[in-house]
């Protein structure tokens, strides 16, 4: 059997998108439940399933996937990843580092999963915009 | 890169959707290729040429500025 060309390569099958959506919805429901019941606002805890769900959504094959989809997804990632890095740096600098404590020598910083979630949300938005525009 | 897909489609009375179905891509992809916004892979270019019963270099041709791109 001939090898599939790399331009048709997707990491996950289409059905994994559903698992991604379930993960995100679950994370949102748990986040709201903890916030309303226990007054706990835990963005870091919610960001792991959200980031994982977004990975499954972004890198899964779509129903109308072809080589242009791969090209647009790469272009969207090229926009989303550095833009998220800039946003995270600005939030850390102007907001999080303001809480720096000299006694404990510690401050809150945005986690890797929060960064990944932001980068993939931006990339997904860019992908759908490019798909519509181009 | 220039292409004559629109002309060849008109000759064969094929819509973008018809051609897309024959080569296994979306209609939007054919539209992007026709307008020169997306350069297809060798495999897709060969498939498109095959549908029209022509050679690839009859459908796609290089422009001088294509040599300037890295």
TrEMBL record, chain A:
<feature type="transmembrane region" description="Helical">
    <location>
        <begin position="72"/>
        <end position="95"/>
    </location>
</feature>
<keyword id="KW-0812">Transmembrane</keyword>
<feature type="transmembrane region" description="Helical">
    <location>
        <begin position="107"/>
        <end position="130"/>
    </location>
</feature>
<keyword id="KW-0472">Membrane</keyword>
<feature type="transmembrane region" description="Helical">
    <location>
        <begin position="16"/>
        <end position="34"/>
    </location>
</feature>
<protein>
    <submittedName>
        <fullName>Uncharacterized protein</fullName>
    </submittedName>
</protein>
<feature type="transmembrane region" description="Helical">
    <location>
        <begin position="40"/>
        <end position="60"/>
    </location>
</feature>
<keyword id="KW-1133">Transmembrane helix</keyword>
Automatic annotation (TrEMBL), chain B:
<feature type="domain" description="HTH cro/C1-type">
    <location>
        <begin position="5"/>
        <end position="59"/>
    </location>
</feature>
<protein>
    <submittedName>
        <fullName>Transcriptional regulator</fullName>
    </submittedName>
</protein>
<keyword id="KW-0238">DNA-binding</keyword>
<dbReference type="GO" id="GO:0003677">
    <property type="term" value="F:DNA binding"/>
</dbReference>
<dbReference type="InterPro" id="IPR001387">
    <property type="entry name" value="Cro/C1-type_HTH"/>
</dbReference>
<dbReference type="InterPro" id="IPR010982">
    <property type="entry name" value="Lambda_DNA-bd_dom_sf"/>
</dbReference>
<dbReference type="Pfam" id="PF01381">
    <property type="entry name" value="HTH_3"/>
</dbReference>
């Amino acid at each position: 059997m001939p090898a599939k060309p790399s331009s048709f390569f997707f990491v996950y099958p289409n059905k994994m998108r559903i698992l991604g959506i379930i993960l995100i919805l679950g994370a949102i429901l748990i986040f709201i439940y903890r916030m309303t019941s226990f007054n706990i606002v835990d963005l870091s805890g919610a960001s792991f399933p959200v980031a994982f769900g977004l990975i499954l959504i972004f890198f899964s094959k779509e129903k109308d996937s072809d080589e242009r989809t791969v090209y647009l997804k790469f272009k969207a990632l090229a926009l989303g990843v550095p833009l998220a890095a800039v946003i995270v740096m600005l939030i850390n600098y102007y907001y999080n580092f303001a809480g720096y404590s000299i006694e404990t020598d510690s401050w809150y910083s945005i986690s890797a999963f929060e960064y990944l979630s932001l980068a993939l949300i931006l990339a997904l938005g860019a992908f759908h915009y490019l798909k519509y525009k181009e | 890169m220039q292409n004559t897909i629109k002309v060849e489609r008109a000759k064969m009375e094929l819509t973008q959707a018809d051609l897309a179905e024959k080569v296994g891509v979306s209609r939007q992809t054919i539209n992007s290729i026709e307008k020169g916004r997306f350069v297809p892979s060798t495999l897709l270019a060969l498939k498109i040429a095959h549908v029209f019963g022509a050679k690839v270099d009859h459908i796609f041709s290089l422009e001088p500025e294509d040599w300037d791109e890295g």
